[in-house]
Write a structure and sequence with these properties.
The complex is a heterodimer of chains A (about 325) and B (about 500). Chain A has about 325 residues and is mainly α. Chain A has one domain (about 1-20, about 35-315): ABC transporter involved in vitamin B12 uptake, BtuC. Chain A has helices at about 1-10, 10-25, 30-55, 65-80, 85-110, 115-135, 165-180, 185-195, 195-200, 205-230, 245-255, 265-285, 290-315, and strands spanning about 140, 235. A two-stranded antiparallel ribbon of chain A has the order 1-2. In chain A, α4 (about 65-80) packs antiparallel against α5 (about 85-110) and α4 crosses α10 (about 205-230). The radius of gyration of chain A is 19 Å and the shape is globular. Chain B has about 500 residues and is α/β, with parallel strands linked by helices. In chain B, about 35% of the residues lie in helices and about 25% in strands. Chain B has 17 helices and 24 strands. In chain B, strands 16, 19, 20, 21, 22, 23 and 24 form a seven-stranded mixed sheet that branches. In chain B, β17 (about 300-305) and β18 form a beta hairpin. In chain B, α4 (about 110-120) crosses α5, α8 (about 225-230) packs across α17 (about 475-485) and α13 (about 360-375) packs across α14 (about 390-405). Chain B is globular and about 75 Å long. Classes of the chains: A mainly alpha (about 325), B alpha/beta (about 500).
């Protein structure tokens, strides 16, 4: 029984909320179109959650990701206006995020700031950088294929099954999953999060691992920014406010422990999906916004409480 | 290793120690707590460098900058607290830091094979290499830790108190394993308090006391008694004060009490005007006994009666009932280092410092000032932060809290650990004064001369069981040492 819960964990939760709304609103909720829409709505938070999974598994936290998303959209819009090709513009946004991550990693390992403090500072500072670059306004960008990553598929695109942005998230998820499972870096991330002292004793390059974790974390946040740009079609320095908390919530609902060492990519994506399903379902139920927010809070509590219970049992 | 010296601040941890161990030999390193055994081995394994002295490995100079370098050179330490990564698998732990990989991708097949090889070398092929370490028993985890050393090709293995967290059958298994490693030609340094174990498995022994080598020889020719007396050495009797006291009524009665894992059995009675010492080795369960009595850890079975109050109670209740505790972890548990002296002294009893439940700092400081004078706490005033005081003065602040609260029963866990001799003498004097004034005191200490100097009775804790309390003049340090080491 416990094994099953442990194995499926968040997936049972997703099945439960989905089934509930499908039962209550069969006509509007459980349609292919709406499912596609929910995948779309998950793409941004889901992509950010991939990086956050690495950060949290290493025993850290990153509060700056919402600001990185905004910075990324601004950088992309500026580059597009300069006539840079779309792919290069997107990579420029990601590079900006990765640079921010490098800075955070250095703050944490060299200045020995606690991750919470370092990323809280960057949460504010990067938002400021985004606003400064954008001159405190939205930046209109020329239309390119970047704007179509998260469009609902038209009839002749049916062969793609899901919009390209969703595919991007899923492929990245596979890559991050493989990184964690099959590479030296991935195992070192788990080791550092699980028992930093033991890892150091065994010669794991703890500082380098941590810096890489924040580079990857912010890099994925910037990729989420690419998707966010696609959705907005403009560079907006105020977008993504509070998104860091959605992303952390997705990872935590997915079974990661803030103490480090634990978490899965699949769990984090399922966590992000649970939050979308609740939001989308609540809209279909015509619940006001505040009800939806209370429900989301309740889900976080229930998910983590189940997780604690599971851990107690296994001792 | 020759002429190894190491200082930490003002304390000399090692003062010119020599040590040699050959392949195919088990060398026992013994000594009381704080004698410098662990420091010596940490220098050998590269945790910190010596201030002076040289080390040779296979005839070549050996000076590891960090534990990783030490391991690569062939010296590995199996720590008392295991240093495994609970969320990784057995194979991943064994090869952590030296994983075979190409382009960053792990060669899982090779990892598995090498882990299996190392486990087979230990004769424990039954351990699955894919299991998470968190799911293994303590004994199995230790095997993984040893396998890690072997997988790196280490020829010198240091075991720091390896049996302290093991059950008896596991200990026998471990001894067989040590014999096997010895036959394979490994050099083994075995650190232990348990002299019986030392006698059973080692070829030679070296005794450390106060950072110096005070004796060595072949184990087969030595008697446990001799080794024990080398460990104790001479004592400074005049440091201790114990005036004539007459015990009064019983204030604390503990009957067959057991905690969750330790203590497994404890029975004693404590009288007014009495100082009871609890001797034993680190890890025997003495701290846990105090914590259980004070309500910090759950009591699983047995009776406990404090004055008129029967049964276990929370720490907050215990304070109200008249029991106070000074933790051995002065810096983490005992004091709030960033708060001033007066806050620390009055923390447990913030009463009568103002009207209508308010707390006036002026009155708090006045109360604290009395204790500062009485205990001669050296500080700039009641508003100085405790973190800025010396260890001895910090300890006095911790004791002053109990005095301010005016508790009847004082539980003191290692009250003189890491403090200077002058403060020690003052604390001994204070304990005597309290006992004469009708208080009851329980002292846990690993330093036996101190217990014999200040206590009326001493009980020994061995692997979770508390022995009978005997008047100090009817027992001896020798006997207590043997009892603590599990040889009686």
């Amino acid at each position: 029984m416990k094994r099953v819960i442990t194995k499926l964990g968040p997936l049972t939760g997703l099945a439960f909320v989905f089934a509930m709304f499908a039962f209550l609103r069969p006509a509007s909720f459980a349609t292919m179109d709406n499912i596609q829409l929910m995948m779309l709505q998950t793409a941004v938070v889901g992509t950010g959650a991939l990086g956050m999974t690495l950060v949290i598994m290493s025993g850290g936290i990153d509060l700056s990701v919402g600001s990185v998303v905004a910075l990324s959209t601004v950088v992309i819009a500026i580059l597009l206006n300069q006539g840079v090709p779309p792919l290069a513009a997107a990579l420029g946004g990601v590079a900006a995020g990765a640079t921010a991550g490098l800075f955070i990693g250095v703050l944490i390992t060299r200045l020995r700031l606690a991750p919470f403090i370092a990323t809280l500072a960057m949460w504010g500072a990067l938002r400021g950088v985004a606003k400064g670059l954008a001159g405190e306004q939205m930046i209109i960008a020329p239309g390119t294929w970047l704007n179509k990553l998260l469009n609902v598929l038209t009839d002749d695109q049916g062969w793609m099954l899901l919009p390209p942005g969703v595919w991007l998230m899923l492929v990245l998820a596979l890559i991050v999953g493989a990184l964690l499972r099959y590479t030296r870096l991935g195992r070192h991330i788990v080791a550092v999060g699980s028992n930093e002292q033991a890892a150091r004793l065994c010669g794991v390059p703890v500082e380098r691992t941590k810096i890489l974790v924040y580079v990857l974390g912010s890099g994925f946040a910037a990729l989420a920014g690419v998707l966010q740009f696609s959705y907005l079609t403009v560079g907006d320095p105020t977008t993504g406010a509070g998104m860091e908390l959605d992303i952390i919530a997705a990872v935590v609902i997915g079974g990661a422990s803030l103490a480090g060492g634990e978490g899965t990519v699949r769990g984090s994506l399922v966590g992000a999906l649970i939050m979308t399903v609740v939001a989308n379902g609540s809209t279909k139920m015509e619940f006001p916004n505040w009800v939806q927010e209370i429900v989301t809070g309740g889900i976080i509590i229930v998910a983590v409480a189940i997780d604690r219970w599971r851990h107690r049992k296994s001792e | 290793m020759s002429g190894i010296r190491k200082r930490f601040g003002a304390t000399v941890a090692l003062d010119g120690v020599d040590l040699e161990v050959a392949g195919g030999e088990i060398l026992a390193l013994v000594g009381e707590n704080g004698a410098g055994k662990s420091t010596l081995m940490k220098i050998l394994s590269g945790v910190y460098p010596p201030d002076a002295g040289t080390m040779m490995l296979h005839g070549r100079t050996f000076m590891p900058a960090n534990p990783q370098e030490g391991r690569l050179a062939g010296v590995a330490m199996v720590y008392q607290e295991l240093s495994l990564v609970p969320h990784l698998s057995v194979a991943e732990n064994i090869l952590l830091g030296v994983e075979p990989a190409s382009l960053g991708f792990l060669k899982t097949g090779e990892m598995d094979e090498r882990a299996r090889e190392a486990l087979a070398q230990l004769g424990h092929s039954e351990i699955e290499t894919s299991v998470r370490v968190a799911d293994l028993s303590a004994a199995e985890q230790q095997l993984v830790e040893i396998a890690r050393a072997l997988a790196m090709g280490c020829r010198v293995l240091v075991f720091d108190e390896p049996t302290s967290s093991l059950t008896l059958p596991d200990i026998e298994q471990l001894f067989k394993l040590l014999g096997r490693l010895k036959e394979q030609g490994h050099a083994i340094v075995y650190i232990s308090h348990f002299l019986e174990e030392v006698k059973q498995i080692s070829d030679r022994y070296v005794v450390l006391r106060d950072g110096c080598t005070v004796g060595s020889g072949l184990t087969a020719k030595a008697r446990i008694r001799e080794i024990a007396s080398l460990m104790i050495g001479r004592t400074m009797r005049n440091l201790y004060i114990r005036s004539r006291r007459t015990p009064g009524q019983v204030v604390l009665a503990v009957d067959s009490m057991a905690g969750v894992s330790k203590p497994s059995f404890a029975s004693f009675e404590l009288h007014r005007g009495e100082v009871l010492g609890i001797a034993g080795l680190i890890g025997a369960g003495r701290t846990e006994l105090l914590r259980a009595m004070f309500g910090l850890d759950p009591v699983r079975s047995g009776e406990i009666k404090l004055l008129a109050h029967a049964g276990p109670a929370s720490p907050a209740r215990r304070w109200l009932q008249g029991m106070g505790m000074v933790s051995e972890e002065r810096k983490n548990e005992g004091l709030a280092l960033s708060l001033p002296v007066s806050e620390n002294i009055t923390l447990s009893k913030l009463k009568n410092f103002g009207r209508f439940g308010t707390i006036l700092p002026r009155m708090q400081d006045a109360a604290a000032g009395l204790w500062i004078d009485r205990l001669q706490i050296k500080c700039s005033g009641p508003r100085q932060n405790v973190g800025e005081l010396s260890g001895g003065n910090q300890q006095k602040v911790a004791l002053a809290r109990l005095l301010h609260h005016d508790v009847d029963v004082l539980l003191l866990d290692e009250p003189t650990r890491g403090i200077d001799v002058g403060s020690k003498a003052e604390i001994y004097r204070l304990i005597d004064e309290l006992a004469r004034g009708g208080k009851a005191v329980v002292i846990v200490s690993s330093y036996f001369p101190e217990l014999f100097g200040v206590c009326d009775r001493v009980a020994v804790m061995t692997r979770g069981r508390l022995g009978p309390a005997r008047p100090v003049h009817k027992t001896s340090e020798h006997q207590v040492m043997m009892e603590a080491a599990g040889t009686l």
